[in-house]
Fold this protein.
Amino acid sequence: MSEKLVVKQWGNSKAIRLPQAIIAKFAMSNDDYFEATINHDSIQLIPITKSKPDNRKRFSKYKLDDLLAEMKEISDEFPIIEEWEEMPPVGKEKL
């Protein structure tokens, strides 16, 4: 893919607008970061990938069976309010 891009004034800076095809190819969104590397007479932009946190370690201390048992204990404390069961929808709850 090769496209001609134009440098434009953006406030006190210069900017190059990227075509939608390039944005889509690299799944870019606002506030994404790139590393700019200068090689002789060219500029290379390398996307800096955002690392997603690995929550498996963080939540590994919890076991599903224990959480479900705890929910059962808590739910027994709250009575079922039958009036709520009979109430008609008042907003977008019923689609």
